[in-house]
Design brief:
The chain is an alpha/beta fold. Helix content is about 35%, strand content about 20%.
Length: about 400
């Protein structure tokens, strides 16, 4: 780790990185242009009482269509109300709230090493990592304006991570620098079929609920949280963060990641009650539910939140939503590195879900994003630009 670590509390205004006007300079796709999506509402022409009456009449139909329409119903009504009253000032599609760390990736190994032994890796790479940051990079490359809220150290690794996030088009104005903690770092050992990690937490566990300010939440459509089990300081108050996000009109999603303690709790069920979309993989689902069989794990998780999207590796993905189950098969690609595939799935699923697509369409694009990421080492979010995942899906 770097030696240039100081002391004291995290700095804010003097250490916050400039956004370099990325949002205003970049032309985002029309499908995620929030100003255009809301341009049909005129505050001068709309009678609020009439709209409320219409919403009341439409409520049974909207409830019937919840499987087809992504998002939290109360959140959508909240957004409509803000639009009519002039209170909607949304700048981001996604707030990614959680972990960011350096990934040192050793890939091209036939098998993982055993203690007392040694294996050779064909490639070594250094990338921006962390479940939340990976998902943020993929969301941005898919065309969704995304801001990352996290902390890094005031060290060379922190500098590297800021540059990498900006390179992927992620807004970095809410990445703060600590001068008392090292930047978190993970060593990833990746084989074609699986991976293992060794992590030094550092700044990864420094984020708290206070970092999810109301001012920030009011600027976005969706809040995604990753790396749940690595963030002990955040976990107790996360249900409150999700609840406040809903009150402000956002939808929410959660990817827990692996629990290093393998206790699989930490108040998770309470948090899931405030979550719209839950993204476990089969290992995590088995740990949480006690069911090794993915189908049984999915059934056990059904009802814990609005949508459970279960990632089952090369087999694809399955979901339960509003009492119905769905499946989308995996895509055949040459696998190089599976690091970050699950996070790419999250981004692909959200891209379709926030566009009100059917759950099976969400699963398919999620699978395509995960498969495409697997064809290159490290954080390969750039492969998702220019509709790369959609093109892969069309070729299958």
């Amino acid at each position: 780790m770097p030696d240039d670590v100081g002391s004291g509390e995290p700095t804010h205004d003097d250490k916050r990185q400039p956004s370099e006007s990325r949002l205003t300079d970049h032309q985002w796709p029309v499908s995620h242009d929030l100003s255009r999506r809301r341009s049909g509402f005129s505050r001068d022409a709309v009678d609020v009482q009439d709209v409320r009456a219409t919403l009341s009449r439409l409520k049974p139909l909207l409830q019937h269509r919840q499987l087809m329409v992504g998002g939290h119903q109360a959140s959508r009504e909240g957004r409509l109300k803000r639009s009519m009253t002039g209170g909607d000032r949304r700048h981001y599609t996604v707030i990614a709230f959680g972990d960011l760390n350096v990934d040192l990736v050793l890939s091209g190994m036939r098998e993982a090493p055993k203690f007392g032994g040694e294996v050779l890796a064909e490639k070594l790479g250094m990338h921006a990592g962390g479940s939340t940051a990976n998902a943020a990079a993929c969301c941005a490359q898919l065309g969704m304006p995304t801001v990352l809220v996290t902390n890094v150290g005031d060290d060379s690794f922190g500098d590297f991570l800021l540059q990498e996030m900006q390179r992927y088009g992620v807004l970095t104005t809410h990445i703060l620098r600590h001068n008392s903690l090292n930047t978190g770092i993970t060593v990833s050992l990746s084989t074609p079929n699986d991976r293992a990690f060794v992590t030094h937490l550092g700044t990864i566990d420094s984020l708290t609920a206070a970092d999810a300010t109301e001012e920030l939440l009011e600027q976005a459509d969706h809040l995604h949280v990753g790396g749940y089990y690595l963030q002990a300081k955040l976990r107790p108050d996360l249900p409150t963060v999700f609840r406040r996000a809903h009150e402000l009109g956002l939808t929410t999603s959660l990817d827990t990641g692996f629990d290093p303690a393998e206790e699989w709790d930490g108040g998770l069920m309470e948090a899931l009650r405030e979550v719209d979309v839950f993204f476990p993989n089969e290992t995590e689902a088995a740990g949480i539910t006690g069911h090794e069989e993915p189908q049984k794990a999915l059934e056990a998780l059904a009802g814990c939140c609005r949508v459970v999207a279960l990632k089952v590796g090369m087999e694809g993905s399955m979901a339960t939503a509003d009492g119905e189950e769905h499946f989308a098969p995996g895509l055949k690609v040459p696998v190089v590195d599976t690091t970050g595939c699950g996070d790419a799935f999250d981004a692909g699923f959200l891209h379709e879900w926030l566009a009100a697509k059917h759950v099976e369409d969400c699963l398919r694009l999620g699978n395509a994003c995960g498969a495409l990421i697997a064809t290159a080492p490290g954080n390969a979010a750039h492969l998702l630009a220019n509709r790369g995942a959609q093109a892969l899906l069309a070729r299958q």
